[in-house]
Amino acid sequence: MANEAGRKIFAGPRLRRLRRDLGLTQVQMAEGLGISPSYLNLIERNQRPVSAQLLLNLAETYDVNLKTLVGDEEGRTLSDLREVMSDPLLQHLDTSAQDLKDVHADNPALAQALITLYRAYRQTLEQAASLSERLEDVSAITPAASVPFPVEEVRDFFVAHKNHFPELEQAAEQLRNDLAAPEESLSAALVRHLKARHGITVRVMPLDHMTNLIRRFDRHSLRLFLLETLPAPARDFQMAFQIGLLEHATLIEALIDKAGIGKGETRRLVRISLTSYFAGAVLLPYDPFLAAAEKTRYDIELLAERFGASYEQVCHRLTTLQKPGAQGVPFFFIRLDHAGNISKRLSAGGFHFARFGGACPRWNVHDAFRSPGKIATQIVQMPQGTTYFSISRTVDGVYTGHHGQQTQFAIGLGCEISHAARLVYADGYKLDDPRLVVPIGLNCRLCERTGCSHRAFPPLSRNLILDENMKSISPFVFHSRD
Q1: What is the rounded CA–CA span in Å between residue 121 and residue 356?
Q2: pLDDT of residue 1 exceeding 50
Q3: Mean per-residue pLDDT for 99-127?
Q4: Rounded to the nearest 5 degrees, what angle is found at the Cα of 332, between the Cα atoms of 330 and 334?
Q5: Do 458 and 479 form a contact (C-beta atoms < 8 A)?
Q6: CB 382 within 8 A of CB 440
Q7: Which carries the bigger pLDDT value, residue 208 or residue 7?
Q8: What are the tens digits of pLDDT across the range 50-65?
Q9: Other C-beta atoms within 10 Å of 295: how many?
Q10: Measured between alpha carbons, how far is 276 from 219 in angstroms, rounded to an integer?
């Protein structure tokens, strides 16, 4: 199994939900698994780990996908709950980590309801703050200001699917088979396909004609306009994206309907994101890409050269390699700008991102801007003790001319330390040396580590110690938990 050797798997709440979904009593399930009801009861209460043999018995007896039991949904929910309970509105309750585990174990639906309510509360606060700023300019107030931003809902959708969509993988594979022509490049094949299948002509347009657009499709003249400064991988991606819109709209809408997403911005953003997933799968076909990734030991820059893709495209694709029976290293992905604003985040690797605020300043993804284009590595550890191997590098945005503002982002890619030996970037590391581990947190507001010189804010859940007669290395000194 892909789990870390020696790692104990506690999956009580998920096993209990499975049993209830199957309509079984503890006695009935225990009999089917060949264990005692009392032992099953202990497992469901997380007082005993699930053994490898029991997992295999569950898969064989009840046709269960093991990833639903050994995944990290519980850890992600607990991380979200910690963020909720760290809010000043609730910090007087002084809930412990065990309290949150008990809530999740006893009633996971209630735990999720608390997270949903808190998210709505935070959105309301942000909308109120935005409205207050706009009151000085009445003309700036629009009905859209009251509409919740859908990005978090879309991220939750992709997390729920572990950023892997078999139906889109199959559609992308079929397109690559249709395009197969050894004598021409992928770019030429995509141009030919658009013309032959849809009568669409691809035109590369000057910067001053595109008015801040990188792609525009004119359905009346059947022309697809692409910005002249787009690198070749980006042009291929935009052509594949357009093909996805034209040929797989029904499939994508079915995936959205299955998730129960209604009308509005969220649905449109999910549609765009799924079409982007399809385009990435066209550029980097699953089986050849996974085979190359394993053979090169996940050398990102070499993979980019081999497949004619960008560094960011490769990193993004690595997070999707979760096909049952043909899985790659489970990576997490983050993209942020100079100010620390997170514009993309994906987590096939169980990494817990804060829903609100930026990332920890001790994580060297921020330092990537000091050495543009160079890869930096780091071993980091989250407060709950999970350790990750992290890879960071900057990427440049689309060039928009001498007078345009050149954007630059930092890309962070990582995996649990148990997978690090599979990466070329871990060569030379003593992965079990605790001296190499850098403790980080979700962000300053949620981190309770003391003595951190990088701290930008005090933790929400701790009271400050204010003494004009002393100065600490940390900007904020606070009471730690007993």
Answers
A1: 12
A2: no
A3: 73
A4: 160
A5: no
A6: yes
A7: 208
A8: 887 888 888 888 877 6
A9: 11
A10: 20
Q: Which two tokens stand for residue 162?
A: 């572990």
Distances, alpha carbon 223 to alpha carbons 170, 201, 211, 235, 482, in Å: 27, 5, 17, 14, 66
Is pLDDT of 466 > 80? no
Considering only CA atoms, which of 74, 71, 72, 73 is closest in space to residue 55?
71
pLDDT score for 130: 52
> Residue 34 carries which side chain, given as an amino acid letter?
G
pLDDT tens track for 222-277: 999 999 999 999 999 999 999 999 999 999 999 999 988 888 888 999 999 999 99
Give percent of the chain with pLDDT exceeding 90. 41
Q: Confirm if 52 and 70 have CB atoms less than 8 A apart.
A: no
- Is residue 137's pLDDT more than 70? no
Return the amino acid letter for 448: E
Separation between Cα atoms, residue 89 and residue 73, nearest integer Å: 26
Sheet of 387-396: strand order equals 342-347, 332-336, 408-416, 387-396, 376-381, 437-439
Q: Is the pLDDT at 369 greater than 90, yes or no?
A: yes
d(CA 348, CA 415): 9
**Cα separation of 286 and 271, whole Å?**
21
- Residue 246, classified by CB atoms within 10 Å of its CB into exposed (0-12), middle (13-18) or buried (19+), is middle
| 138 contact partners, CB below 8 Å, separation of at least 6 | none
State pTM to two decimals.
0.71
Sign of the alpha-carbon dihedral angle for 126, 127, 128, 131: positive
- Summarize pLDDT for 172-211 with one digit per residue, the tens: 999 999 997 777 899 999 999 999 999 999 999 999 888 8
